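S.,

Sequence below, as promised.
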Amino acid sequence: MTMSGTQITQPLTSLLKIKRANDIAQAEVKASREKARLTGNDVALAVHEIYYRVLIAQAHRSATEARIRASQDLESERIEQVKFGSSLEQESIESRAQLLQAKQELLTTDLQLDDLKLKLNDLMGLPLTTVLDLDPVSVESQETCPLEECVTTATASHPEILEARAEVEKAEAAVRLAKTDIWVPDVEAFGRYSYQNNVPFLARNFGTFGIHVGYELFDGGRKRAVKREHEAQLAQAKENLARLTDEVELAVHTAYNKLERTQQMLQVSEEIVDLRSESNRVLQQELLQGAALKSQAAMATAQEYDAKTLLLQSQMDYSQAHDEFSHAMGLTPE
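The prediction came back faster than expected:
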């Protein structure tokens, strides 16, 4: 007697498990993509911040140099006045102290400027010794959406929230996979072709088809423990999503308020510059007419530089606030 056969088996339950595993993988990819976008936003915000600080430090350096020149002129005048007895020696000492303080401030500014340039090169991935020539930033008032609309947009599209939602989807898929592993038996469909020789009452060639169902009776404890673990991870992911949503709403409110305050400060700084420029113009005319001292004119110039430095500070604060607002919205600062 001779018997032989060929059988093909297709597991069916594993197809359902594969779908759950694919859902988990897709959620992981989505979370990784949003995390990468969030990292890009963080880097852009950090580069903008250091860039603004470099520009402010450069402007502060120019103002300090103007103050040094004014202090040098004042010191020379005080020395002459002491010689002729029209000024006290104490005033000459005071002017000398002011000059030295200005020089000390210049050295401190240079040190800060060097550190900032190193940080900027590092953030941009450039060699630390790269010499940068930064262009000034054009600051214009920009329209923003209403606060509540901004909050709604941020909670719907912020990368951190989207990443948290992807983690929730991943945990939900893991729970579904664990439930499938517990309740769904192992089902296989099979088809078999058989050949026999010298067996009475059976055809020489015949085929059989059927379904095989199997279930592990004594493995339920482990599977239920796995399910409970994934359910705990799901609850944690949902709690994390709720926490991040609250944090994004708070960040949008904070950035929105800061944007409004810095815009008001910018307007005040512009008025101060106008006044200091007019004061400097008047003193320069008086100097030409002999009605003002050289140190007074130089100090007026230094005060105008200081006012322009404060204006630049206000402009950069406004730009930084706008970048922070874009970051809070989940956008890349431009």
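The helical segments are 13-83, 89-124, 147-157, 159-183, 220-288, 294-328.

Coffee later?
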